[in-house]
Amino acid sequence: MATVAIEYPPSNQILPGSYLLKSAPFPETLPAKGSSSEKPLEESTPESIASKWTLSFNKLLRNEDVPVEQVFLRESCWRDLLCMTWDFRTIQGVDGVSKFIDRSSKTSQIKSIETYQTPVHKIPKFGKLEDLDLVQAYIKVDTSAGAGQGYVQLAQDATDHGKWKAFTLFTYLEELKDHPEDIKTRRPTGHERDPGLEQLNWSDRRNAQRNFEGGREPTILILGKFRAEEIVKQSG
Q1: How does pLDDT run across 71-103, given as a tens digit for each residue?
Q2: Counting Cβ atoms within 10 Å, is residue 193 exposed (0-12), middle (13-18) or buried (19+)?
Q3: How far apart are CA 43 and CA 32, in angstroms?
Q4: What are the tens digits of pLDDT across the range 3-34?
Q5: Rounded to whole angstroms, how far apart are CA atoms 84 and 143?
Q6: Is residue 124 within 8 Å of residue 47, measured between CB atoms?
Q7: Measured between alpha carbons, how far is 43 from 230 in angstroms, rounded to an integer?
Q8: Pairing state of beta strands 72-81 and 163-176?
Q9: Which residues have C-beta within 8 Å of that of residue 205, sequence separation ≥ 6?
């Protein structure tokens, strides 16, 4: 018996045990296609739109009388990993963003962000989410504790003359300023001189460091408040 192979689009393939969910409607503040009163996309560049938004975002962080509503859409979402607080946080809506920035300003916080000029795949670009026009940009993040990266999607606010605002924002801490990771140009080359291990080659010096030879002591971090208190009491 002959069989006929029927091909389905990847989005319509339902695997056993799964259920095809319908797409949620876009928020009301996002513009309908062709309804924006701002400049058409062809009259603006993604670089200028993203640059203008990052300027507003930095002013918001510095409390320079820029309301959150001018930077984020009402239904926006911000996912932050260790940049604003030492925690993983997901914040939704302008009220949540406003409270998040106020609370974080007393601890670790983002000092500024900027868009990439190179490489090509990281510079701001126009994009689409179904029928929604977006500006998508990778960003550099400078915090009081270190440096990170991020990604933002900007959409036009239909209730504010089509102004470009953050629809989704993602930021994460990549390294600490006082303790940079030993990568790229910071990797050990084998030419450094250690007064205590000068006669050894690079491999032998590495093994000596790993074994804490030459009077070295390991740095120990104890996690767990109550357990740490018990150790202190026992040692005292």
Answers
A1: 999 999 999 999 998 899 999 999 999 999 988
A2: exposed
A3: 19
A4: 555 554 555 566 666 666 666 666 666 766 55
A5: 8
A6: yes
A7: 67
A8: parallel
A9: 194, 197
Q: What are phi and psi of 184, to 5 degrees?
A: 55, -120
Read off the pTM. Answer: 0.71
Which residues are paired to 171 by β-bridges?
Answer: 80, 150
Q: Facing residues of 78 across strands?
A: 91, 169
Terminal CA-to-CA distance of the chain, rounded, Å? 84
Q: Cα 217 from chain centroid?
A: 36
- Strand pairing report for 88-92 and 72-81: antiparallel
Task: Note whether 65 and 185 are within 8 A (CB).
Answer: no
Cis status of the peptide bond prior to 119, with omega within 30 of 0: yes
Q: pLDDT category, 55, cuts 50, 70, 90?
A: very high
Residue matched to tokens 């260790």? 82
**Amino acid (1-letter code) at residue 231:** I
